[in-house]
Amino acid sequence: ETLFDRAGVPVFQVIVATTRREVWENNQRGLAPADLAMHVVLPELDGRILAGAISFKGEIETDPALAFRAFANRPEMDRVAQVAKRIAAFIRLQRTKRAERNLAILIPDYPSAPGRTGYAVGLDVPSSVLAMLHDLKEQGYAVEGIPQSPRALLDALEVGRHELSSEDYLRLSAELPEGAHNAVRAAWGSAEDQIGLREAPLSVLPDISPSRGEIIP
Hints:
Oligomer: single chain
Number of helices: 8
Strand order of the largest sheet: 1-2-3
Low-confidence stretches: 212-217
């Protein structure tokens, strides 16, 4: 048991990266493998919440006595502000009544082939989702119409009941930053003719994760 366990509060993991910021920005994976392991994977196993990177490597002033310019981590104020916003949003969520929170449970669909929905080696994903839905309902979340069986859950997901019109999607996506909007279009194509976009109601919504795509910076 650690001090954080005894405190009973969430622990946010910030990242002090071992790479330069420009490397992080231009890498589709973002962080280097070592940073992913130390700051994302292992802390997640400890139950920490990833808050984001706040510092990257950069050159410091040359030491005249040593005639040497070293690399050191420096805080990035815009990233610090982003982490602060995420923590503030988490606090607002804690203060929101459970019945008024919006939750989404994404079910894996890899490798995105018919009959492979909810596939995971050694795991019964549909049954686990049903158990989560019952637990959430007991805890006061707005969960309605829980399927009676794993098969019924998968059938309901394949049909889909909550849809977002193309017009509403285009209107909402136009509010995104231009760079993010262009990246989505480059990776997934135009949405003008797409239909069946799903919108989460004020409740807990299980859904199938989208087919994997690549966001081009």
